[in-house]
UniProtKB/TrEMBL annotation:
<keyword id="KW-0436">Ligase</keyword>
<dbReference type="GO" id="GO:0016874">
    <property type="term" value="F:ligase activity"/>
</dbReference>
<protein>
    <submittedName>
        <fullName>Amino acid--[acyl-carrier-protein] ligase</fullName>
        <ecNumber>6.2.1.n2</ecNumber>
    </submittedName>
</protein>
<dbReference type="InterPro" id="IPR045864">
    <property type="entry name" value="aa-tRNA-synth_II/BPL/LPL"/>
</dbReference>
Amino acid sequence: MDMQTSFLDRLFESGLLIDTGVDGLYGRSGQFEDVITAFERLIDTFGGADGAEAMRFPPGMNRALFEKSGYMKSFPQLAGTVHSFCGSELDHMSLLQCMEVGDDWTKDQKATDIVLTPAACYPLYPTVAKRGNLPKTGGLFDLQSYCFRHEPSKDPARQQLFRMREYVCMGKEQHVTDFRQRWMDRGVEMMKQVGLDVTIDVANDPFFGRAGKMMVNNQRDQNLKFELLIPITSAANPTACMSFNYHQDSFGLKWGLNLEDGSVAHTACVGFGLERIALALFHHHGLDVKAWPASVRKTLWG
Ligand code: ATP
Ligand code: ZN
Ligand code: MG
């Protein structure tokens, strides 16, 4: 038994996170949200002059497009689908009967046209592809969405419903890799301004199964994914608070994203884990925002 009160327990006790009875599903206090709002303003000051087109999608996406994305090939263990009751009055009666006796009432639920969004950029690619060729300047988009991943955990930094702020860039290889490098530099600078020590390292996604091993190796060998890491729950295993992904032309090919000259677009995305950044701030500077260093408060609230 761990005799120390865990960080999660302290977050519950302080009211910053609100227990719902499900690991990784938390309410957030006004104070917690205020930190996220302030940090997003900081993101805006770094990225605002780039002229990204802002779009906000709800936390559910078109199931047909989700199927086309190939998510179930790579991460079936993380996906969440929305199912609903679609039956008759008779079916309703047996549903209630099932619930009454504690049987599994969910087995007759039918899949709807909606699945939970796994990453903020997923609904973007088909949306942009529908417009036709990209303009000469390529594409730059500013997104934020709640995302779902079925990975219940006692680690407060691993939630099942959390927000991801993203910038997505589409263009030629050099253009999008420059974009990614610029955000790595900005990420380090932003975290410095809020008093957080970071490291950047190559990373990989948790591709499922034996076939996934090859994809992990490919992703690492080609430096397709980097993470900005900050210690939250463990000093030895710092937490990824930002990720920087270069997709080469794979999303361009999959979704039919073409540049003005008709060539296939390369894409890259950078993601901020907003809850993780807030938790890193609370972990490092303490649970009482009023006691945070003046320089950090000034960066966040002016
Ligand atoms: P990890 O390696 O910790 O599982 P990830 O590689 O799965 O992270 P991405 O898929 O790159 O993360 O998602 C973009 C960002 O979203 C991450 O850098 C992180 O800050 C945040 N994020 C990812 N998963 C979670 C989660 N379960 N809870 C909270 N934030 C998350
Ligand atoms: Zn993305
Ligand atoms: Mg993950």
